[in-house]
Amino acid sequence: MESVDRAVSRARAAQAEWIARPLPERLASLSRLARIFTRRRDEVVEAVRAETGKPKVEALAEVLAAVELLHHYARIAPRVLRTVQVGTGFLAGKSAHVVREPWGVVGAITPWNYPFLTPQDAITSAVTAGNAIVVKPSEFTPRSARIIPGMSVEAGLPEGLVQVVEGDGTVGAALVAAGVDKVVFTGSSATGRRVMADAAGGLTPVLLELGGNDPAIVLEDADLERAAHGIVFGAFFNAGQTCLSTERVLVVTDVYDAFLRRVTALAATLRAGEEGGTDVSRLVTPAQRRIVREQLREVRDAGATLHTGSVPLEEEPRVISPVVVTGAEEGSALLRHETFGPVLPMIRVQDEEEAIREANGTPYGLFASVWTRDLVRGERVARRLRAGGVSVNDTLTHYAIPGLPMGGVGDSGFGVRRGEDGLREMTRPRTVLLHRWGMKREFYWFPYSERATRWVEALVVLRGNGWIRGLPEALRVLRRRGA
Ligand code: NAD
User: Which of 20, 75, 224, 344 is most buried, judged by most C-beta within 10 A?
Assistant: First the structure.
């Protein structure tokens, strides 16, 4: 696709200019960009709200998380990206080091649920590490990403370093095929699979941030009031259209009834709607409305109870009041797959063991939370969960901490963004070895000799067993004749 190819070659030229600047100068531009986002936050908030209808506080959260990451990376980049000396072991007269090289041009494909933050996160990590980036935002929310390149130039980044190409999946596929050096994909597991298959053609490395079906485990010793408030927030923030959303709650039987009562009471107080002054906004895309409606209809028809609000399942409603579901069938799409809507199924479990088993019972592994007054127990349970990140007595807050890497396992993808690891993902190690002094010929170079072979064998013994334990045998090897 010509427009995409053009964007990638422009990005390549801008990257050469960018990487030629000293790191402190590049980082100063990124700090400036954070200040520009802050000064022009109303523009960002307006774009995000126009495209998604989310409450102002949630749109501001996108700006906050974006500026946090910019400042965090400006602080840690000199250390994370520095050249690291590596010991050369038994090889004398040499030195070795590892240089963090940017990939070159990164292609990022992003979804619609955080239409400013997700593109900007990819941009922040790519350009901090010295790359250029071409972003293909969701066709449902291009405006929030479209405002970023202009602001980047205002901050001092070269023209063309940050570009946005617009369109649907065909443009995304064209970007994957356009010879970019790394693909960062955030979206559904199904599309992630296609992107990875397409990237395989060019052996292009991919980072996949995919869907989730994140569990919350409420143990019998939980602070039920905090757990109820936290889980309601985790499930219904951004109308449940968050990859880290709480998608199901596993509640130990002793506290199940009390917890259900509290959660349904809290959910019933939330105001859902399209205009300002609401807590729960609309579902952004028609496909999303269909998925939520189908999943709810399936469990309702099989006998589940939908608590709170009226749910007009005969249509595809743009706005759904928060729904708490009990009695959903095991194996239903609601429990097995991602919902990405304001729906919270509640499942009764006997004990901690059953909760862990259930929590790990889907192909996803993105996030999870555990609720207990005993932090040691909380962490012990957390360690047994198959998830890229776990909170104890908290939820969604991971994203407010830019130092935490984010990523999943299984159907939730692989690779991470944010945190030190997220910055390193935008680089590859280039290893350099310098021979500084020594002989004209290393003892292990051609031509091979019986003596050199004995030396190498002695080295195996010494390095494998350690110098003290290996010395007698190594000496025997060296004294041996006719190897
Ligand atoms: P999606 O997979 O439908 O689309 C994502 C992006 O991929 C869009 O820009 C789309 O145009 C593009 N695309 C579609 N087909 C393509 C193809 N063949 N080749 C290349 N690009 C293509 O996802 P969505 O509905 O936009 O977003 C919702 C999903 O994103 C949910 O599953 C959610 O969990 C996930 N998500 C994950 C994270 C995370 O960090 N793990 C964060 C946000 C959203």
Answer: 344
